[in-house]
Amino acid sequence: MRADDTPLIRLEDYRPSDWLIDTVDLDINLHPQKTQVRALLGLRPNPAGRLGAPLILDGDELSLSGLRLDGLLIDESAYSATAQALTLHAPPQRRFTLTIDTQVDPSANTKLMGLYRSSRVYCTQCEADGFRRISYFLDRPDVMSIYSVRLEAAKLEAPVLLSNGNLVAAGEMAGGERHFAVWHDPHPKPAYLFALVGGALDHVRQDYVTADGRKVELAVHVEPGKAGRAGWAMDCLVRCMRWDERVFGRNYDLDVFNVVAVSDFNMGAMENKGLNIFNDKYVLADPQTATDGDYASIEAIIAHEYFHNWTGNRITCRDWFQLCLKEGLTVFRDQEFSADERSRPVKRIADVRTLRSTQFSEDAGPLAHPVRPRAYKEINNFYTPTVYEKGAEVIRMLKLLVGDDAFRAGMDLYFDRCDGTAATIEEFLACFAETSGKDLTQFARWYEQAGTPTIVASGRYDAAARTYTLDLAQTTAPTPGQPDKQPVVLPVALGLVGKAGDLPLVTGSAAYAGDGVIVLDQPSLSVAFSDVDEPPIPSLLRGFSAPARLELDLADADLLRLFSADSDSFNRWQALQSVASRALVSAGRSPGGHNALIATAGELAEALAGFLRVQAPADPAFAAQVLRLPVPADIAREIGRDVDPDAIHAAHRSLAAEIGLRLRPHLMELRERLGTSAAYRPDAASAGRRALRNEALGLIALADPEAGARLAEAQFAAADNLTDRLAALAAMTLVPGDAREALIARFAKTYAAEPLVLDKWLMAQALIAEAGTLDRVKGLMQHPAFSLGNPNRVRALIGGFAANLTQFNRPDGEGYAFVADMVVALDRTNPQVASRLLGSFKSWRMLEPARKALAEQKLAMVAQTPGLSRDVADIAERALA
Ligand code: ARG
Ligand code: ZN
What's the CA-to-centroid distance between 11 and ligand 2, angstroms? Predict the structure, then answer.
């Protein structure tokens, strides 16, 4: 399919469904190739729809094997059935039932949408539109039904049979070979929240009693033999359930809650009602096979999917344009949970890093779109950092603007008013307008307008008048389809830092909202602070109070002062990042500015030396973030045009190496101090110590490759956990030579039976910034650990390579050629994985002319490939537009 032949679906064209489906009774006979599905739908005309309209049910690669209306066969002229639709031309204008028989082949389903088999486990993925691959249906989120599901399967093949809701019956079929289970979900839900699982699975179980007294049986199901790795996920589940009771007043609402890990999954996880299905990467953890980063991701994603039970399931989306209504809000909720469980400033820094590297880059390129898109061809291409991460930032700003109390009251009102409905952003915002008494009309622009705003700030101190005047202006660059931008509401949290800390903020300005927040909602404004006794250093956008770029021309000396004296941890971290970033941008722009870079390294090292000695040991997790420079991709985006990835990489390497060289004794001493003999524990404090030690290792390896290699080897040998081993491998990848190859081989041997660990091994190699990497990656495709059929393997090796700034962007274009070929190959089996991979081209327009031309050629090659999926065709078309 060519993208230009695909209809554009528009938000403004929304109309309610002409028909409703109150009940769905599914009877599913599981078989590896011939699964029989019988769906009994209880239909009625929608009073809000068009009277007398035909009934058009969605399908996708379906074939109809039987159809009855109110239990009776119907004349063939009364309906038509294709793979994409089942149409009843003149349905009765009353309640009636349809019995629809379809047959599907789960083993042949390589798209991993609908019903498929993953390592012999039957599972489903129905969001956004996978249910129509199981049965004909009104597959839209505003059609909500009560489901009863009877599953039948061979006992040996699928001893465990799960679906949404509560188990109401189970038993054996005559002959004893097959058995069945019946599940009932009392909560009406859209089809995208339907799920089933069947297979041989082990589990861990735990009883839970909700704050309002409901007994719930929790279970985490995993591949046989892996129950020992399910404990952490269960622990996270219990903690996030308590947290949602305490912080949002939300209780769980069924008698069972099941989590299932499967090894083939397109995304991270899915919030199906009462039956969350996960990519096993985000469930399985033990110290030998999961890193600290994995433990943290599992905590975040278990919470994310659980929190969807209220923000997504009890209240769902009217249409897919409202996706951020559930995703942005739920990301915000999971971020808050992690912040409460761990260190809030460190979590904020990590989230902002992710936001900048994924969302800012999306917003700066041809795939930019608003948090609530106005049109789409393929909805699966809109599960993006903009909808998720920027969507969460919008909620965070809303909370800051209305205040904690009105925010909580607004959430309560939203849960109250919209429970059981398919809602819109307008309905959501209305709750907060009501509880805060604030007009949120302009704020709503965050949902409509794409692009990252830039805040340009400057300050003037008048010693005679004892005033400090802050001038703030905002601009947003054009994005596709939006040439002219309007001002958005930017809450700018700030402080004025004096010699002895924050100065009092005294001003009569209407833009000052109190509590250290200026609301910048005009193209520009000035705020005058009075009674300012000394020239202050402005600390702006504290806590990253708005998802914007800040241009504020502070001298390095002032930034270094903020690094040591700002009361806001985020801005302490940011200050040092800003010093490094400015030097890297200028060196990346015009290579040869080496001396300036060395001077900056000297400044940074001096600031860090004291910090490492005195403060770092008290908060290692924060210190690890401080030691980590901005990533080269961030520098590329800051430069924005005519980007030369090699120049940026070289600058980045030499800055890090210089800092490492100067700090080496401190780093060694710190590593000694932090070295523990205690057994591995995944808690945030222990993880922070490992993070700092390993950050130090990386710097040492860049400064002195030989010393780094020796340290890495020793660390690998001594480590009792994957975090330290993987960090050793990563440090070693920075040092070309035999020792590196030996450690790579040893790692593979150690973890030969662990696909998820080998993914990290594949990725570490794919990220090596050397010309030999492309051949290495092609070679690794033949390794038994790799498979094009498994999304995790593809994301690790091919996705890892596409994220390798210098090698994906090789000057000879071979990196683009390789990734483009992989996109075309993958598209034949799994369009979602292919289109994600094609998204790696999103920053091609900012490259220098030669690379830009090569990238464009390869994008065009993809776009012109016959028989493309809608997913890939849509990305190719938008990337080239
Ligand atoms: N709702 C899921 C989550 O964020 C994501 C599912 C997306 N799946 C897809 N095929 N687009 O938790
Ligand atoms: Zn989600």
Answer: 21
